[in-house]
Write the structure tokens for this entry.
Amino acid sequence: WPLSARHQNLLVKEFDDEKGGDIWLALDLDETVHAGQGQESTLEYAIIWAASWAWHLLKQGKGVGLYTSAPERIIIPPARGTAQINRILRALAPLHTRADIPLSALLREIRPFLSNTHSLVVITPSTEADWPVELAQPDIRAAVKGAVLLDAETFTQGPPEIAQEMLAEEPAGGHRPLALSSDSDRMSWLRAMLAR
């Protein structure tokens, strides 16, 4: 009050939000850049990575949102809490690739949803030159921008020999590695991951 009285004007003290406080995950579903099949595909790894990262960030108290296209746009604004991870998992479980939206277009679409207090993490196997240019544009107002780049070439060579040997052997304790073969299996795996 003393400053307001001295200046004969109401003064308000504003606090900036934490830079990079809420995180948007932008998942690339462009089928022309994905490789592999089924559980050994860049799509499967991208989805599991997005779910794992969302869970980890939400456990830290961060707000997490999801933006992708499959076949309609999926826009889940950043929020915190258990309900948010359930929304994200339900959105991720049925995802498939599609041919009509390259990552550069997805990045143009997400612009209106970003603020300078958000972070943006792009998850993609794309090595095309257009999307990094789009990500670097100053009108993408995210405070922090990053990318998770999946190496698509490693998914076209089939599973490594060690993975084939592990699947052929009877593991100690009688537990086999989890195989994801359908959307319901993926959702079950995502829920089992959260129960840990």
Summary: The radius of gyration is 21 Å. The helical segments are 2-7, 42-59, 82-92, 103-110, 130-135, 161-168, 183-195. Residues 42-59 form the longest helix (18 residues). The longest strand covers residues 63-69.
